[in-house]
Amino acid sequence: MRALYTFTMYLVTPVILYRLAARGLRLRGYFSRWLERFGYFRDPGLASSIWVHAVSVGEVNAAAPLIDALRRRYGESALVVTTVTPTGSDRVRQLWGASVFHVYLPYDLPAAVRRFLARTRPRIAVIMETEIWPNLYFECERRAIPILIANARLSEKSLRGYGPARPLAREAARCARFVAAQSQSDADRFRDLGVLPERLEVVGNLKFDMKVPDDLVNQSCGWRGQWGELRPVWIAASTHEGEELAVIEAHSRVLRRFPDALLLVAPRHPERFRPMYQLCRSHGFVTALRSEDRLARPDTQCFVIDSLGELLAFLACADVALVAGSLEPIGGHNVLEPAALGVPVLVGPHTFNFAEVTDLLLERGAALRIRDAEDLARSVQRLLAEPDARARMGQAARDAVASSRGAVERSMAIIERILEETAPCNG
Predict the structure, then answer these.
(1) Do residues 50 and 70 make contact, with C-beta atoms less than 8 angstroms apart?
(2) Are residues 197 and 66 both part of a single domain?
(3) What is the rounded CA–CA span in Å between residue 293 and residue 290?
(4) What is the pTM for the complete model shown?
(5) Domain of residue 338, CATH code
(6) How far apart are CA 113 and CA 6, in angstroms?
(7) pLDDT band per the 50, 70, 90 thresholds, residue 425
């Protein structure tokens, strides 16, 4: 089955390249650094590095507290951070600059994987969340590079999605030295996939350990002062194409009750920045862009955040936050960022990618589930009109996050144990 998988990967490589080029038409970052995706890059001269892989922006943000802990604990070791997307790459550079070595993870082709590992020479691979690439895992096992799947999550949908390739996924997953699961449900599904029970542990979600910058409150107060300190503000975070119209329709209803309300909207993908801006304008809203106008003005009704790495700061400016990706069957996005800031959270019906965390906030009274645009508008209106209700939800959110911290410490203990048990890889 592995041979068939590898043969298929070579067959679809032209299709992958075509998709890469098509994405490059919308996001120029996809046009650059193509050779890295085949394992070709300047040999950085590393030895016994620590390698962390995080697919895109969300995974990089989740990995940030763990990477910072690794830098503190293993400052003498080179740190390699790989991503798949240009937005993830940009976030790595924003957070750590040249203090880490960053390249794209190569495609799961045997030769590309071998070139990548020969140049980075990791003594451990820390793979974030759900990335199981058979050739990569098998090559790491062949080279005695231990793999830790950190912040591991596996939804029922993802488990079913392996379909006929499940035996291959099982064989690859068993190459992992350890799986640090977010929840018991995730651990159970990894066990169903074939991970041995003695290599599994529930450590919690790294995102609970996110650090809120000390100056964030002052920054958000300053921003609100520019567009009107007392204006009601809500944010739609990480929206997808199928959700944009629902958000706009909800804001139209919100404006009928709160004529001075401001909508902050942050599309999930950069290719949706300009279409979201045009959609807002087509509905007659006074609209501004982060890249052009820097901040909303007192007369701005919709403000499109067409930048990366700034979502947390704008969440801190909001009275209510819709965490999107949940109005459509996408599975939802990170609800912990607004929760950590004490911002009441709204989610749609589809939160299967973050089920346990979302359920925790719902149970604690820190979040509300909405059905559609009409329900969204009604919930936003109610919360904007009831500051005491917002305060109760915000405090419940902070308490829920605070009570669930500790995943970084537990993950670091696992990494330290693996490194003590394993001799450094010679590459």
Answers:
(1) yes
(2) yes
(3) 6
(4) 0.86
(5) 3.40.50.2000
(6) 12
(7) very low
236, two tokens: 């739609």
Mean pLDDT across the stretch 54-63? Answer: 92
Query: How far, CA to CA in Å, does 386 sit from each of 65, 175, 260?
Result: 35, 53, 16
**Which two tokens mark 59?**
């995974």
Cβ within 8 Å of residue 340, ≥6 positions away: 210, 212, 397, 398, 401
pLDDT tens per residue, range 168-178: 999 999 999 99
Measured CA to CA in angstroms, residue 400 lies from 167, 208, 273 at distances of: 38, 9, 32
Note the pLDDT of residue 427: 42
Q: Are 60 and 95 in contact (CB under 8 A)?
A: yes
Q: Which residues, other chains included, contact 17 with Cβ-Cβ below 8 Å and sequence gap of 6+?
A: none
> CB neighbours (10 Å) of residue 149?
27
CB pairs under 8 A, 24+ apart, for 328-332?
328/240, 328/242, 328/243, 330/240, 331/155, 331/157, 332/358
What is the biggest distance separating any 2 CA atoms in the chain, rounded to whole angstroms? Answer: 66
Closest among 376, 320, 374 to 348, alpha carbons compared: 376
Token readout for 426 is 């010679």
Residue range(s) defining the domain that contains residue 93: 2-204+406-421
Angstrom distance (rounded) from CA 340 to CA 271: 28
pLDDT digits 0-9 by tens, 128-144: 998 899 999 999 999 99
Length of the chain: 427
Tokens at residue 133, please? 């690439």
One of 36, 59, 243, 337 is an active-site residue; which one?
A: 59
Q: What residues contact residue 185 under an 8 Å CB cut-off, 6+ apart?
A: 355, 356
- Claim to verify: residue 346 and residue 197 sit in the same structural domain: no
The total number of structural domains in the chain stands at 2
Whole-number Å distance between alpha carbons of 63 and 127: 10
Give a yes or no: residue 210 inside a domain: no
389 and 412 assigned to the same domain: no
φ, ψ dihedrals at 334, nearest 5°: -70, 110
Q: Look up 374 and say whether it is catalytic.
A: no
Q: Which range has the worst mean pLDDT, 26-30, 153-157, 204-208?
A: 26-30
- In 164-225 the beta strands, taken as DSSP E runs, fall at 178-181, 200-202
Do residues 236 and 183 both lie within one domain? no
Percent of the chain at pLDDT above 90? 80
List pLDDT tens digits, range 99-131. 999 999 999 999 999 999 999 999 999 999 988
**Residues 416 and 334 both lie in one domain:** no
